């Protein structure tokens, strides 16, 4: 359903997303009020420990599952309120997916080129000549032109994933969702696949969300969002800046996410390093918030250790 999302410019916008699974009378809160905003054309990695809710979120964004409550808009589509027919159109035209299990992505009896062409054949969106040109373009962007006439069994794991991503974006979806695309690959092959995803993002402007627990993914994306206990908790933004000496350097800035109720999570290492627990003392400064260990009233600043300062992040334990 095309409705205007609350913030029309965000390509993916989730607010207070909740997903409760009930199995045999036992409730599991997989998503506990998750907020996420991804701008159009962005490339974002969503990282988090096993069980933190990453796959649950991706399943919702891909239109395969409905959340229990909250809002989720993808490319202007309200994923909570789609009818069956709209859901099929959404999955066909708006989002592309690549899954961890390579076998789930490609048909084993088709060649790489036939696999990539398949979504276009299914939607009858292009004539044969346009289709062939599109397949060639995609295989080239993904660096797998040499695999054109081979079947999946004749490809390496990394080549299979690159063909799978070419297939996922064949119909020019606005959003690409990838669930652990490097989960079955070694480090070097993973880096190749991630660079290929980045190339697709830059070439076609496809908004891309990669879900992973591979920390190396963070090196290949501009923005990493960490999910903890079914909520987004921290973000890292990377940018390259040229210093006074003329050399380009990569800067990484850490942010913590603050929700509408003013709650935020302190990084575990800050909590451990300063022995923060139970209650902390806060102080409001003109441009930041101080967080001190200890629960007794302060007579000055000197006696309590000061929390390391995270850029932009005011810190308070939730
Ligand atoms: N269909 C389901 N029925 C019941 N509980 C589920 C279901 N799917 C997920 N869960 C539970 O929801 C929580 C979040 O699971 P989810 O698969 O989203 O985490 P994840 O971060 O993707 O983990 P992993 O990295 O191991 O895939 C877990 O406690 C999981 O057991």
TrEMBL record:
Residue ranges of the region described as Disordered: 290-318
Residue spans of biased composition, Low complexity class: 302-318
GO molecular function: ATP binding
Descriptive protein name: ABC transporter ATP-binding protein
Signal peptide (residue range): none
InterPro entries, per database record: AAA+_ATPase, ABC_transporter-like_ATP-bd, ABC_transporter-like_CS, ABC_transpr_LolD-like, MacB-like_ATP-bd, P-loop_NTPase
Record carries keyword Nucleotide-binding: yes
Superkingdom of source: Bacteria
A Pfam family this chain is assigned to: ABC_tran
Keywords: ATP-binding, Nucleotide-binding, Transport
Domain ABC transporter intervals: 12-254
Keyword GTP-binding applies: no
Source organism: Cellulomonas wangsupingiae
SMART domains the UniProt entry points to: AAA
């Amino acid at each position: 359903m095309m409705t205007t999302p609350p913030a029309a410019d965000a390509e993916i916008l989730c607010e207070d997303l909740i997903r409760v699974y009930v199995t045999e009378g036992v409730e599991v809160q997989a998503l506990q009020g998750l907020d996420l905003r991804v701008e159009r054309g962005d490339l974002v990695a969503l990282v988090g420990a096993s069980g933190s809710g990453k796959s649950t979120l991706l399943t919702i964004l891909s239109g395969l599952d409905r959340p229990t409550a909250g809002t989720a808009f993808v490319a202007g589509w309200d994923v909570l309120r789609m009818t069956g027919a709209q859901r099929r159109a959404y999955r066909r035209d708006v989002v592309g997916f690549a899954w961890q299990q390579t076998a789930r992505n490609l048909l084993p009896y088709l060649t790489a080129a036939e696999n990539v062409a398949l979504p276009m054949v299914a939607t009858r969106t292009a004539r044969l000549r346009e289709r062939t040109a599109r397949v060639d373009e995609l295989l080239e962007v993904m660096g797998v032109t040499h695999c054109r006439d081979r079947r999946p069994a004749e490809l390496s794991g990394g080549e299979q994933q690159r063909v799978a991503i070419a297939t996922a974006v064949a119909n020019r979806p606005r959003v690409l969702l990838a669930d652990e695309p490097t989960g079955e690959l070694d480090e070097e092959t993973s880096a190749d696949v991630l660079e290929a995803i980045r190339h697709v993002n830059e070439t076609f402007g496809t908004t891309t969300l990669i879900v992973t627990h591979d920390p190396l993914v963070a090196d290949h994306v501009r923005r990493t969002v960490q999910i903890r206990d079914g909520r987004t908790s921290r973000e890292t933004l990377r940018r390259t800046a040229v210093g006074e000496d003329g050399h380009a350097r990569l800067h990484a800035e850490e942010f913590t996410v603050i929700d509408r109720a003013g709650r935020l999570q302190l990084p575990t290492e800050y909590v451990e390093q300063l022995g923060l627990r139970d209650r902390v003392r806060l102080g409001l400064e003109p441009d930041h918030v101080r967080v001190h260990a200890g629960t007794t009233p302060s007579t000055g600043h000197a006696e309590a250790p000061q929390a390391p300062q995270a850029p932009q992040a005011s810190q308070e334990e939730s």
